Amino acid sequence: MHKKIDILNIGLVIASLIIAIMIPFKLFIFSYAILGPLHYLTEINWLKDKNYFVSSNSKWITVFIVFALLVSVYPIYKIIDYTVANSFMEGVETVMKNTHVLLLTGFLFAIGLIVFRKRLHLIIILVGSFLLSLTLLYFLPTEVFFIGLFLPTIMHVYLFTLLFMVYGSAKSQSKFGFMAAGMLLLVPFVIMFMPVDPMTYMVDQQTATIYSHSGMLLVNASITKMFGGLVDGQFNARTPIALKAQIFIAFAYTYHYLNWFSKTSIIGWKSALTKRKSAYIVIMWVAAVALYTYDFYTGLIALYFLSMLHVFFEFPLNVITIKELFKLRKSKPAAT
């Protein structure tokens, strides 16, 4: 079973990359609107079935729900046209604008959930994580911004997917699994060195508007800036570096979702589905796709909480995976 799934994933890496090269903007929109909601719903159900991988600390998952609410409220807050009337609401607005602090706090707190069990310790870790995040924001604002920007996006869909694949392959000792992980690791380098002709990437106005509304333009611009792709200090989505960044984004999101759906039996998320749960998930997924089809921006706002919730809920699993990879590395016998 593992061998077949690993071979399938090799094919999915190749197929995702080819389609991303051909239609990077439309592929991202399709994957985010169609595959994304089904992924959120099924993964949240699976994580709940696994007690979010924090066993006796699962009640603390409420913290992640609050954080996801605060992060997802700001996009709604921005489109409401009214004047902030008092200092309390101004304070709320400030917190919501600094969502990268909440994301970093959530990830640091997830480490605490894995390590500690006592309530007092967890309260201290939660407060300490928030204060540390604020301190880092003061001294390293750019770095914290990038962490907050990439943690729920590129790191979530690419880096953690790669780590999951490496860990799974190490446990099963699957050469095809390592091959799939190796191919995934090489994709950014393939994209980086491939020739790109901007004239072959003409984007219609509707696609450009939908993509802009997705918020991924900021991620693209940040990656482009990191690789020196700005033109006279300005971002242009049709420069070669920006197009390569978009190809990578489209690939990463598409493969992330396909990888999840390919492993129903290996990680057992299918077994967490009852007939009733499956029916609820299908109904919510159809409603989500219909909302995106009606108006992409409305769908994005409506489902943003669900998107952020599954990112926060996955943090403990991310931490465990990193921890286990280090343990595997240390347990390897020394070379003779």
| Proportion in β-strands | under 5%
Tell me, briefly, the overall form.
globular
The N- to C-terminal Cα distance equals: 34 Å
Structural class estimated from helices and strands: mainly alpha
Mean pLDDT: 89
Range of helix content = over 70%
Count of runs of 4 or more consecutive helical residues? 14
- How many strands, what sense, and barrel or not for the largest sheet? none
Provide the domain count: 1
Structural write-up:
Helix 3 (61-79) crosses helix 4 (87-97). The chain has one domain. The chain has 336 residues and is mostly helical. The chain is built from 14 helices and no strands.
Outline:
By secondary structure, the chain is mainly α. The protein is built from 14 helices and no strands.
List keywords for this structure.
336 residues, mainly alpha, globular
